[in-house]
């Protein structure tokens, strides 16, 4: 059964917890917050034993069924936190999920998080089985025209009222990065809770942020400025910016670059790819220019590095996540740097 993210709180209060929840979408803040809300509700209801399953190549899907059949040694109620970052469970995973959904074990909450799914995936047997067994929460990106309204609602939840010009400025500065927008609102709330905040206060708050930003890094890498990009990356690390925040920004750009590069390689208009990946109007030319520098295979390799960096930042890979981020940035600008030095 479909459930909108904004309906989740009311659903939990009215209906309590279902046995199965699926959260799907490419907006990390909203996916994370929906998952956190469910985990919190489960803990409040006595689900104290939580097991995390991270689906990577070679994952043993038999573990899910075995754990479902086993009794918990620590609690009567359990959470199975199943994360599928690639979005595709594969043949074994599809069979395991469909089987699990036919008869979910009692006192067990299955929470599945995935990226955005295409029509074929949503029509698959495993997805439809999970849908029938519980609730599916689909998170859609906040479009540019809807961002001010989202910011206003977010600010009000923090007992903060933003003036229209302040909302417009903040929307332009964060460019759809909901994590950055939420952090700015939380910072403003600490200083101005219960007040109406105008443009000057918001500008002062944004100006007082870290010297470097992930937006500067992304734009610099798209421009092919290798030396400057690496200096910004080092600055972000020195200022304590989480590696996952930097990675989120670079991954978003690389997905756009791959899609545009693929369109160009097949002599198609890149406009569709730019729109599908929600590239802002002012950046469409920059992304298209950058995509021409390398073939689709090169951008795909960098996205695989992003996946490794994600695992490393979460302690699931021995590599240094910041070294991997440096490799990613270098790969994004490599061809232009080589031509300039030739």
Describe how the helices and strands are arranged.
Blueprint: E1 2-3, H1 8-15, E2 20-25, H2 28-44, E3 47-54, H3 62-69, E4 77-83, H4 90-102, E5 108-114, H5 119-122, H6 125-133, E6 135-139, H7 147-157, E7 161-162, H8 164-174, H9 178-192, E8 196-197, H10 199-207, H11 214-222, H12 226-238, H13 243-265, H14 271-276, H15 284-291, H16 296-313, H17 321-341
Give the number of DSSP strands.
8
Q: What proportion of the residues form beta strands (DSSP E)?
A: 5-15%
Task: Let me know the largest β-sheet.
Answer: 6 strands, parallel
Widest sheet: strand ordering? 1-6-2-5-4-3
Spans of at least 5 consecutive residues whose pLDDT stays below 50 are 336-342
How would the global form be characterised?
Answer: globular
The radius of gyration is 22 Å
Give me the secondary-structure category. Answer: alpha/beta
| Rounded average pLDDT | 87
- Alpha plus pi helix count: 17
């Amino acid at each position: 059964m479909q459930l909108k993210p904004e309906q989740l709180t009311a659903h939990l209060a009215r209906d309590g917890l279902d046995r199965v929840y699926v959260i799907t979408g490419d907006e990390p803040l909203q996916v994370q917050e929906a998952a956190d809300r469910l985990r919190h509700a489960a803990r409040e209801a006595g689900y104290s034993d939580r097991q995390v399953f991270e689906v990577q190549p070679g994952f043993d899907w038999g573990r899910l069924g075995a754990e479902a059949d086993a009794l918990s040694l620590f609690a009567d109620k359990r959470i199975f936190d199943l994360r599928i970052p690639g979005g595709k469970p594969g043949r074994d995973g599809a069979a395991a999920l469909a089987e699990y959904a036919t008869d979910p074990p009692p006192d067990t909450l299955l929470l599945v998080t995935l990226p955005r799914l295409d029509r074929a995936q949503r029509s698959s047997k495993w997805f439809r089985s999970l849908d029938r067994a519980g609730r599916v929460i689909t998170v859609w990106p906040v479009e540019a025209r809807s961002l001010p309204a989202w910011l206003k609602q977010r600010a009000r939840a923090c007992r903060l009222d933003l003036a229209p010009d302040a909302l417009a400025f903040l929307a332009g500065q964060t460019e759809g990065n909901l994590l950055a927008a939420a952090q700015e609102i939380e910072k403003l709330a600490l200083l101005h809770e219960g007040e109406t905040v105008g443009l000057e206060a918001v500008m002062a708050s944004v100006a007082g942020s870290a010297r470097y930003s992930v937006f500067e890094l992304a734009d610099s890498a798209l421009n092919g400025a290798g030396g400057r990009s690496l200096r910004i990356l080092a600055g972000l690390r020195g200022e304590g910016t989480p590696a996952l925040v930097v990675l989120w920004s670079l991954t978003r750009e690389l997905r756009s670059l791959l899609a545009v590069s693929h369109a160009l390689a097949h002599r198609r208009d890149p406009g569709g790819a730019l729109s599908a990946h929600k590239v802002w109007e002012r950046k469409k030319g920059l992304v298209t220019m950058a995509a021409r520098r390398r073939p689709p295979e090169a951008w795909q390799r960098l996205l695989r590095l992003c996946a490794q960096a994600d695992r490393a930042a979460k302690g699931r890979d021995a590599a240094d996540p910041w070294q991997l981020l440096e490799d990613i940035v270098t790969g994004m600008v490599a061809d232009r740097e080589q031509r300039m030095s030739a």
